[in-house]
Design brief:
Length: 318
């Protein structure tokens, strides 16, 4: 009896060890996610010429910015930009719906199956993103001034040599990122600038998605967005600047990462020069459309294997 029990326990232990070894091996190769979004399956829409005179695109990501929580938050800047510009509150992120994987799709224009950045922390040994060009690299090839200002160390993967005139991780908080971005806007009037606000994600993990603390973090991030809008006005470039505000993922309870509407649904809002006024976007928007839209607006040719398509319906096209 005891001997056969020992045998069973022994066999079970080996099974557990094998499972753990497999898991670690797959983690080591960055393949720990069972559900990874493949290439885009939407019909390719005809792409018109972009609106004339766009010289600057500023992408702002509210980390964990779930539309249903934004709806409850005092965010006068974002909401006025959405109301007077063009918006959808039903854009979609990719799987896995986590920060580094999703931002890589947002800023490379391709699905995770192509960019293969399938981990979610700063891994110095992996170095900068090398599987596909980033939007910054494409913009830089087009002769533009580029910047990436983020609140989390994992964004160091975007710092590909020769592609960014400014790369900063000033602090975790939105206020510090916005202040750094405002300085860069004043000094260089960038062609393509990405600014990341961590606070809503941090509060979501600590206190829950939709918690009062997360609502406050969204309000703080909205104030930071106001700093960016003011910096653009002060630099005298408002008439040639387009803003795109979005998020990498939503969330539920204290987490995110699943293929469920709570985690997958993100806002996609655009405001500024050439944007349709009071326009509700109905074309389906996926996060990799952000890179496609930014580059299209700036007159840069999109690589043939992009999954993203410009959200052209949101603009007064020629
Ligand atoms: Zn995130």
């Amino acid at each position: 009896m005891t001997r056969s029990l020992n045998k069973i326990v022994g066999a079970l232990s080996i099974a557990v060890l094998v499972a753990m070894a497999t898991l670690f091996a797959s983690c080591a190769h960055g393949q720990q996610y069972a559900d990874v979004s493949g290439p885009d399956t939407r019909t390719k829409l005809a792409v018109p010429a972009p609106p004339a005179g766009i010289k600057h695109v500023i992408i702002v990501s509210f980390d964990g910015g779930k539309p249903a929580v934004i709806d409850q938050a005092p965010m006068p800047v974002l909401k006025s930009m959405a109301e007077s510009g063009a918006a959808t509150w039903n854009a979609q992120t990719i799987m896995p719906s986590i920060t580094l994987v999703a931002h890589t799709s947002m800023l490379t224009g391709v699905a995770p199956s192509k960019h293969k950045i399938l981990w979610n922390e700063w891994k110095p040994e992996r170095g900068p993103i090398a599987t596909v060009p980033t939007a910054f690299a494409l913009a830089k090839q087009g002769g533009l001034v580029t910047g990436c200002i983020a609140g989390k160390e994992k964004f160091k993967h975007f710092n590909v040599p020769g592609t960014l005139d400014d790369f900063e991780i000033p602090d975790y908080h939105a206020a510090a990122c916005a202040a750094a971005a405002a300085r860069f806007i004043a000094a260089r009037k960038p062609g393509l600038l990405f600014v990341h606000f961590s606070d809503p994600d941090g509060a979501g993990h600590a206190f829950g998605w939709g918690s009062p603390q997360q609502i406050q973090a969204l309000a703080d991030s909205d104030e930071a967005l106001g700093v960016l809008r003011d910096a653009v006005a002060k630099a005298g470039i408002a008439k040639s600047t387009v803003f795109i505000m979005s998020a990498d993922h939503g969330g539920h309870d204290h987490t995110h990462g699943l293929r469920i509407p709570d985690d997958m649904t993100i806002p996609w809002i655009t405001y500024g020069a050439g944007v349709r006024k009071h326009f509700s976007i109905t074309q389906p928007v996926v996060t990799y459309d952000t890179a496609a839209t930014a580059l299209w607006l700036l007159g840069i040719k999109l690589p043939a294997d992009f999954d993203g398509q410009p959200v052209a319906s949101a603009y007064v096209t020629r």
